[in-house]
Amino acid sequence: MTGRPGDRSDFRLSRRGGADDERGPGTGVAVKPAARVKKPSMYKVVMLNDDYTPMEFVVMVLERFFGKTHDEATHIMMHVHQKGVGICGVYTYEIAETKVSQVMDLARQHQHPLQCTLEKA
């Protein structure tokens, strides 16, 4: 079985037959097996605390890039401030990677040492 497109080996034979089937007993119909779709892995975007980035900047980042309300952003910012780390959101890899880049780029532009990473959920 090579699995190349057009290769008949990726089909299984569905048996149909019996007295009512005019093709006769043992006649088969080729049926392609259903493709199994796997859910993508999810990744947490994690923000790390530092002693220099203003709290207002962190709240603005959470609102802008993670779609948080002002209250949600303030709550997450306080969690990061008190615990040293906090989850901003959980996304597929590509989206999480983009959000980390956006946060890091904006922090650099404003000369803040804010750090944001991703880890598998």
Question: Could you please describe the fold and organization of this structure?
Answer:
There is one protein chain. With 121 residues, this protein is α+β, with helices and mostly antiparallel strands. Helix content is 36%, strand content 26%. It contains 3 helices and 5 strands, in the order E-E-E-H-H-E-H-E. It has helices at residues 55-66, 70-83, 93-109; strands at 12-16, 27-31, 42-48, 85-92, 115-120. The strands form 2 sheets. A 3-stranded antiparallel beta sheet has the order 4-3-5. A two-stranded antiparallel ribbon has the order 1-2. Helix 1 packs across helix 2 (70-83). The longest helix is centred in the C-terminal third of the chain and has 17 residues, at 93-109. The protein is elongated.
Radius of gyration: 27 Å
**Average predicted confidence as pLDDT:** 86
Indicate the low-confidence ranges by residue numbers. Answer: none
> What fraction of residues sit in β-strands?
25-35%
Shape: elongated
Number of helices: 3
What is the straight-line distance between the termini? 36 Å
- What is the spatial order of strands in the main beta sheet? 4-3-5
Question: Structural class of the helix and strand makeup?
Answer: alpha+beta
